[in-house]
Write a structure and sequence with these properties.
- The chain has helices at 40-56, 77-84, 97-108, 126-138, 143-146, 161-171, 193-202, 296-312, 314-335, 364-372, and strands at 8-9, 28-29, 38-39, 91-93, 117-121, 147-150, 175-181, 206-210, 229-232, 247-250, 340-342, 355-359, 375-376, 378-380, 384-387.
- It is of the alpha/beta class and 394 residues long.
- It has a seven-stranded mixed β-sheet, sandwiched between helices.
- α1 runs antiparallel to α8 (296-312), α3 (97-108) runs parallel beside α4 (126-138) and α6 runs parallel beside α7 (193-202).
Length: 394
């Protein structure tokens, strides 16, 4: 996998703010948990579509090129499904992550007087928290009584999977939805999704996950794990570019979605979509939740990266990732815990590539020092630095 680094644009130290303008070495880029690097093919694919627009205008939608715009998402769906361990018909590439989370929760979160609670992890990503709370309020519920936040035990930094299972077993009769991260953005912990899903289903709950930090990072098996729904962004480990298009998954068991949905014309059957009438049936499963035609430039930007994932394979990338992060962990251990504590679980199976370091003081000066020397990572003030050696280009 070593040669894949050459297929990315790696910023040079002289191009980074506050760095030596004469240092032409490539930086050490360990910030794929925030924004992945640009594949070299991205500009080529984007420019091809810009050229088509210039030469063909509206005819680009239905031309005989390999990527007609009307079905542009079909160039990425199967490759994205491979990354998350799904069937192609279970995946849609559309919108952004939080939009997709709302679209999925409309049919999947249907509370009753007895079963009305949502389980999330404490310190979840703010957008997840806002989305869940707003969905509760749409149903006349309040987070104070209908939101359960599962937390680490006192003195611990990560949440024990057993504690999540015990919570579901204990309160499952009142839980409508278990909605956790796949990989926790702050600590880097990978939750045991198959066990959590099985526990949720045993108690009659829906299991859905935000995979923003898991897609392209962990070898996922969403279909085999029987996950009900999931969504993810693609600009982190999937390298689609800032604000890139997102993905959504609905298990084929839910091909006939009942109940309410937020609908748009792109969710109806393609063969009759352009009849422009109001009785065209919706596509099954997640495809029926599409709202509008996908943005072409964002889609081919994602395609450039997914081509690399298809060539490398998630299992090989995951194996390399465990070695890389383990090596980073060994180097950090040599520095010693008097300077920081690693928040991320030590067991490789319980984390992705990210390690989160908790310092005893404000980390801004440390972070700027690293940045000044060409080490690109991520800071969460006041005292956490996240380091993520993504295996495709590290």
């Amino acid at each position: 996998l070593k040669g894949f680094r050459e297929r990315f644009h790696v910023p040079r130290i002289q191009q980074l703010p506050g760095c030596d303008p004469h240092n032409e070495e490539e930086c050490v880029y360990m910030c794929g948990n925030s924004l992945g690097l640009q594949p070299r093919e991205t500009k080529t694919l984007v420019n091809e579509e810009l050229d088509k627009w210039a030469r063909r205008g509206v005819f680009g939608h239905f031309d005989d090129s390999p990527r007609p715009w009307v079905s542009i998402d079909q160039t990425v769906v199967a490759k994205a499904a491979d990354v998350v361990g799904a069937l192609p018909k279970e995946v849609a590439i559309m919108n952004t992550l939080t939009v997709n989370l709302h679209l999925l929760m409309i049919p999947f979160f249907q509370p009753t007087a007895e079963r009305h609670k949502i389980v999330i992890e404490t310190r979840s990503f703010p957008s997840d928290y806002y989305a869940v709370c707003s969905q509760l309020r749409l149903h006349g519920l309040e987070p104070a009584t209908s939101l359960i936040e599962v937390a680490p035990r006192e003195g611990e930094h990560s949440i024990r999977d057993d504690d999540i299972i015990d919570l579901i077993e204990r309160e499952g009769s009142s839980i409508a939805l278990v909605m956790l991260s796949g990989v926790q953005f702050y600590t880097g912990q990978f939750f045991d999704l198959p066990r959590i899903t099985a526990a949720a289903h045993k108690k009659g709950c829906i299991a859905g996950f935000d995979l923003a930090h898991a897609a392209g990072n962990i070898a996922l098996r969403l279909h085999d794990w029987d996950v009900d729904f999931a969504c993810w962004c693609t600009y982190k480990y999937l390298n689609s570019g800032p604000g890139g298009i997102a993905g959504a998954f609905v298990h084929e068991r839910h091909s006939t979605l009942t109940g309410p949905r937020l609908a748009g014309w792109w969710g109806v059957e393609p063969a009759t979509r352009f009849r422009m009438d109001y009785d065209t049936p919706f596509q099954p499963g997640v495809l029926g939740l599409q709202l509008s035609n996908p943005p072409v430039l964002q889609t081919v930007s994602l395609l450039a990266s997914l081509n690399l994932f298809a060539e490398a394979g998630m299992d090989r990338l995951r194996a390399k990732s465990e070695l890389l992060t383990g090596y980073l962990e060994m180097l950090l251990d040599r520095i010693g815990e008097k300077h920081f504590v690693v928040l991320t679980p030590r067991e490789p199976a319980r984390r992705g590539c990210q390690l989160s370091l908790l310092f005893s003081r404000n980390v801004k000066t440390i972070f700027l020092h690293l940045e000044h020397h060409g080490v690109v990572c991520d800071m969460r003030e006041p005292n956490v630095i996240r380091i993520a050696p993504a295996p495709l280009y590290n």
